[in-house]
UniProtKB/TrEMBL annotation, chains A, B:
<comment type="similarity">
    <text>Belongs to the HMG-CoA lyase family.</text>
</comment>
<keyword id="KW-0479">Metal-binding</keyword>
<dbReference type="GO" id="GO:0016829">
    <property type="term" value="F:lyase activity"/>
</dbReference>
<dbReference type="InterPro" id="IPR000891">
    <property type="entry name" value="PYR_CT"/>
</dbReference>
<feature type="domain" description="Pyruvate carboxyltransferase">
    <location>
        <begin position="5"/>
        <end position="272"/>
    </location>
</feature>
<dbReference type="InterPro" id="IPR013785">
    <property type="entry name" value="Aldolase_TIM"/>
</dbReference>
<dbReference type="Pfam" id="PF00682">
    <property type="entry name" value="HMGL-like"/>
</dbReference>
<dbReference type="InterPro" id="IPR043594">
    <property type="entry name" value="HMGL"/>
</dbReference>
<protein>
    <submittedName>
        <fullName>Hydroxymethylglutaryl-CoA lyase</fullName>
    </submittedName>
</protein>
<keyword id="KW-0456">Lyase</keyword>
Length: 304, 304
């Protein structure tokens, strides 16, 4: 039992965002309220984006206002622009998460903005949030590679981290948006980030698209990272790889860390009980391994 | 590019063993011959077990005699007893792989033998193989945990390694038979094994049952291990976890190591081309991630 790790749940935002079927608001609220009881450090509740852009999250206000806040849990929302920020602030969120891409072609494809344009918009959002006490996190997509451009220079990632901090961002999430990262690269980028910005709250956001999700989390952990995004059941597909896994799975990640003797703060059995409701909720199987195999301490009756 | 790693393919033995449908001998032979052209260090071809015990491998002689040997590739077979050893030697195998369990309840369930009984049988097999020049490897199942007994003491694993070496075993494979290992445990056991027996050829055999397969491989690599078993497509189910993944996937493992800048000796594109034939060959989808998602350097056309 060494240092404390922080697990941040993204299923109701990153997971549900890509679900074809609308999850009823009361189901989202019930799920978030159950998740809040498991010891997760943070929950990314929803996205205050245009209901037209992401219809599956069109109930952002209703969900954010319907949940019962558990002290100690941070409730975060994704905010794409000033209007979204105003909507989020009206709901008394704890944190807003801004998203930009490290590579311009991904930024244009995903957000219709270059990195420069994203940074300019962040400045405006941060100005609007002044005095609210809300924590400002920025997620840097394609920090480990871009599906259009390929390799993203590490110097570029570092430059963008610095510029984000310069405009008032307090926490930075390094995102392996399409599952391109490898453990050596993760170790390098994380070590450098922690060395250069020791006061910044860094989160690592991995996808399991190429099976390396937990290996990358392990590499980040070894480099000194203590915060991880993860999605219940491993929900959240990758638009560029149909059939492939999406986000790393919360219960699989917690299970690995727990088996390693690390303190995630999460009650794994409670989390698994919530995860078990997910396939019915979304109407299809989910990628998570522990839901299928059980925890490592699962015992079988001896053969006769 | 640092040290050379060795990837050992087990699909035609460990993978096909658990397939319900018999794979025709000529298909097995063709698959092995294609695999031998990819740069894999070793191929576990088949098992010289009783055709009644494992009907899917009842064509061991035919397959072993039908393949075209590629210089530099080691052709290994599983041998459960003296009779199997005699059959294997008659086929001029390069290596025989003996299997025992670190935990007696798993040994009884899987082999109907305690560890003591397995060691005694190994002595007889090794005596029969004397003078043949065949390399003797022993696989230690449940080295990281037993589905019946739970934790297996690390001291027990060390004791069994020593006893295996004492009776003439030259290589030892530490097997996470049912996917119970975690990276911290793997690092501990591997470091200790390499420190105590620096001259012994150790192989690590992981399953991805709980999503930790590649994380465990990474932990073993970091501890100094350079040999890994893996199964094409991730084939090879776990009888204790229906629906869960089996062996770690060869092409996913090679992909991870290659992305890390390590030399596996394997031509990944060739290996992927062979892996792509597997779903048709076995008549069902396989768990491998890279087959679905493509390599990390896969590029997509930019959005218009």
């Amino acid at each position: 039992m060494s240092k404390r790790l922080y697990i941040q749940e993204v299923v109701t935002r990153d997971g549900f965002q890509s679900e074809a079927q609308f999850i009823p608001s009361e189901d989202k609220i019930a799920l978030i309220d159950r998740l809040a009881q498991t010891g997760l450090a943070k929950i990314e509740v929803t996205s205050f984006t245009s209901p037209k852009a992401i219809p599956s999250l069109r109930d952002a206000e209703e969900v954010m206002r319907g949940i019962r806040r558990v002290p100690g849990v941070e409730y975060c929302v994704l905010v794409p622009n000033v209007k979204g920020c105003e909507r989020a602030l009206a709901c008394q969120v704890d944190e807003i998460n801004l998203v930009m891409s490290a590579s311009d072609s991904h930024g244009m494809a995903n957000l219709r903005m270059t990195a420069e344009q994203s940074l300019e918009q962040f400045r405006q959002i941060i100005a609007v949030s002044q005095g609210s006490g809300v924590f400002i996190n920025a997620s840097l997509s394609t920090a480990f590679g871009c599906p259009f451009e390929g390799q993203v220079a590490e110097a570029r990632v570092h430059e963008l981290i610095q510029r984000l901090l310069d405009i008032g961002v307090q926490g930075v999430t390094l995102c392996d948006t399409t599952g391109m990262a490898d453990p050596a690269q993760v170790a390098r980028i994380c070590r450098e980030a922690l060395a250069r910005w020791p006061q910044t709250q860094f989160t690592l956001h991995f996808h399991n698209t190429r099976g390396m999700g937990l290996a990358n989390a392990l590499a980040a952990l070894d480099a000194g990272i203590d915060r991880f995004d993860a999605s219940l059941g491993g929900l959240g597909g990758c638009p560029y790889a149909p059939g492939a896994s999406g986000n790393i799975c919360s219960e699989d990640l917690v299970h690995m860390f727990q088996r390693m003797g690390l303190d995630t703060g999460v009650d794994l059995d409670k989390l698994l009980a919530v995860a078990a409701t997910l396939p019915t909720l979304v109407g299809h199987p989910v990628p998570g391994a522990i839901l299928k195999a059980g925890k490592s301490d699962r015992r079988y009756a001896k053969a006769q």
